[in-house]
Amino acid sequence: MIHFLNAEGRYYAALPNVTSEYAGNGSSFFWREVWSHPGLDILGTPQFKFLPNFKNPCWYEPLVESNVYQNNKFAVVSMNARRSMMELMETWTDRLTKDKNAKRLRCLPYFMIVGQPKCASTDIYKKIMKHPDAVPPPIKELHWWSRNRQGRRINYTDIIPLTQYIDMFDKAALYIEKRSEEMGEPDIDYHKIITGDGSVSVFWENDDWWHFPENQGHTEPRYTNADYIHHVIPNAKIIVSVRNPTDSLLVTHNISSVIISATMTYLLGPEIQLDKAFL
């Protein structure tokens, strides 16, 4: 049984002085203060020592228990992530049964696809992942570097630490680890399989920059997503996808029109005809 939230449906951690009370719309609620959390200090994180026989940036860590995802907040927001974690927990249980000193391979993305919305990044990502030497994480766009590490996806009730971002590549890491044996190359101790992150928002979104301690007191960001990524994954391959802004805007408009039309039809009924000039 994995417990992510308490009985009231909120996530809590035993940290002092981390809540602030706000009033809005006639009601009061508690909002977790995240900006002083030490887990947000990416630039102060010790750099990983990646294994030289892996093309993808990977390393081994001790596997101390099977339920290593019990507090992972990506499981709260993604069914695919939950399913992946449950499958992995069975694998870790089996591994610990066979070896009390078991380890698990941990990996970060070898490449990142960034860019503007509606710039064919999904198409690029899917085509890369069709290659036999590439394996995807359970979520294409984790948006961790740009917004989710500070907890925006869970309404700033808590941060999502780096370790939980790395968890999202555990299944890919398991595949990377096993692939050489499956290919019938036991004598070749080099793992060439890679994984990636398709979070396009890393390219442009940095709305919370002024909250971070390293940027406080400045009128513009001293450090951006690029600095954080370079610190953690120095040799990351960045693929930038951009498009003619007019074409991108037209695609966004067409998609929005379809969504608005379908929503209004659902709310008003099919007998109400909408003037497409207003969509």
From TrEMBL:
<dbReference type="InterPro" id="IPR027417">
    <property type="entry name" value="P-loop_NTPase"/>
</dbReference>
<dbReference type="InterPro" id="IPR052654">
    <property type="entry name" value="CS_Sulfotransferase"/>
</dbReference>
<dbReference type="GO" id="GO:0019319">
    <property type="term" value="P:hexose biosynthetic process"/>
</dbReference>
<protein>
    <recommendedName>
        <fullName>Carbohydrate sulfotransferase 15</fullName>
    </recommendedName>
</protein>
<dbReference type="Pfam" id="PF13469">
    <property type="entry name" value="Sulfotransfer_3"/>
</dbReference>
<dbReference type="GO" id="GO:0050659">
    <property type="term" value="F:N-acetylgalactosamine 4-sulfate 6-O-sulfotransferase activity"/>
</dbReference>
